[in-house]
Amino acid sequence: MKAIVMSEFGDPGVLVPTDVDLADPRPGWVTVEIRAAALNWHDVLVRRGRYASPLPHTPGADGAGVRTDTGEEVLILPSLFWGDRTDAPGAGFQILGDSTPGTYAQYVNVPEECLAPKPAGYSWEQAAALPLVGVTSFRALVTRAGLRAGESLLIIGAGGGVSTMALSLAGGIGAHTHVTGSSEEKLAGARAAGAAGGVLHTRDSWPEEVKELSPGGKGFDVVLDPVGLWDHSLRALRPGGRLVVLGANVAEHVTLDVRKYFFGQFSLLGTTMGGPEDFRGLMNLIAAGDVAPPPIAATYPLSDAAEAHRRLESGGEYGKIVLVP
Questions:
Q1: Which residue from 143, 198, 144 is spatially nearest to 167, judged by alpha carbons?
Q2: What single DSSP character describes residue 23?
């Protein structure tokens, strides 16, 4: 089969189309013929060597396709070996494409528990773009933050995969959502997708500016921060509000005013990609019919994975980039 193989870590040029043999699936696993594979920033970190993947290696966490044993159209949950607890993954947890060969290929082997029916009305590209950002957003907003209909939500970083999916899920839940963004174009894209409004987070005063847009100007019930600005994000919360953090691509370290934190009665909630139970909750919410599919920014042939990564790293897209074998 054709697959993208990296024999070393580095820039996008290490992603090379190669003919490889597909291993037989292990017990409890099935083979899926990939129809589309979506890119995530996680794939860039794998390519750079952050997760010490075995070499040579095929990356890729997200995908959708057809089960070769039953012919069913499915999408793939990239959360492997979650474990028995729902509050946090077990010690053996990994993401598809970390150590296990991923979805940048014509075929992939995955655990049967990591498959769900392709949502009705979704294209292959939209289905492939859903699992990682979908289950991550669902776990952050629903499982961890307990977001409810009628509550106010602020999403940091409009245009990113998780941020865009979270906006869609929040609409399905019935929350009132504002965003921050790095450009007017990304704010406009978020408003077109259902956000009530937003501000640029390029000024240090943005938490106070966006807080003025919250109900009564008192702050938001929930703030979702997938980029690492949560020392600023706390300033946009109402007293007793919840901050959910799940990324650090902008900043990996923050300094907090401890007194303001505990006097504010804030809840700080760390989260990651979810497991099978979160996946079921996500699919149930989508089945209710109120969640828009992920927007697709661009589609590339599988053989152009390197160019797709360059476009992802440019950071200018609103929506997901997808590979098609």
A1: 198
A2: P
